[in-house]
Amino acid sequence: MTGEDPFPPRRQVLIAEEEFSTDEAIKAVKRDDAGAVVAFIGTVRDDGIDELHLETYKEAAEEELLAIREEALERFKLLEAVVIHRSGRLRIGDEIVIVACSAAHRKEAFDGCRYILEELKRRAPIWKKEVGPAGDRWLEVGGNSTLARPEEERSHEGRDDLETG
Question: What is the pTM of this model?
């Protein structure tokens, strides 16, 4: 990593094309007034696939993650929270997401971390495609069905017979 802060203040969300440091994310939420630090790290599991492709609308996803983070900070009295989600091609064992939260007490830290993760899955424009011996398969993702996956949108370019909206 370069010398610049990977988690600038008040913008501690990131859609990352490259691997991220879980240690740096956890360090970013540690504070002297925090009695609890909770982190969830999601990884690509080996359930018969070769790899996982993640596609995002980066700007929209980061804005939604920022909104979710702000909601959690207020609702659960979190002291800090970092959310990083990968995009691109991932292999078995690669880290997909980290949600790290700090709070004065463990209940708030656990509840805030879970809230961020569940809302991320429900609201952020991030799509997953499993690639394996049985072929490719897009996974259904929470509230993202109202937006076309990037691949679908590209397939509609230049076609006047399709409505957009």
Answer: 0.82
CA distance 31 to 164: 47
**Each residue's pLDDT tens digit, 38-78:** 999 999 999 999 999 999 999 999 999 999 999 999 999 99
CATH 1.10.3720.10, domain 14-132, yes or no: no
The Cα–Cα gap between 87 and 57 comes to 10
Q: Are 119 and 85 in contact (CB under 8 A)?
A: no
Q: Give the DSSP H/E element, type plus range, for residue 86.
A: strand 80-86
Residue of 77, 75, 56 whose CA lies nearest to 120 = 56
Task: Provide DSSP, 91-139.
Answer: ETT-EEEEEEEEESSHHHHHHHHHHHHHHHHHHS-EEEEEEETTEEEEP
Taking each helix axis as running N to C, give the angle between helix 58-75 and helix 106-123, from 0 to 180 degrees, rounded to the nearest 10. 150
- SS3 category, 82: strand
Please report, to the nearest 10 degrees, the dihedral formed by the alpha carbons of residues 52, 86, 113, 35 taken in order: 130
Read off the pLDDT of residues 126-157 as tens digits, 9 standing for 90 and up. 999 999 999 999 986 655 545 555 555 444 34
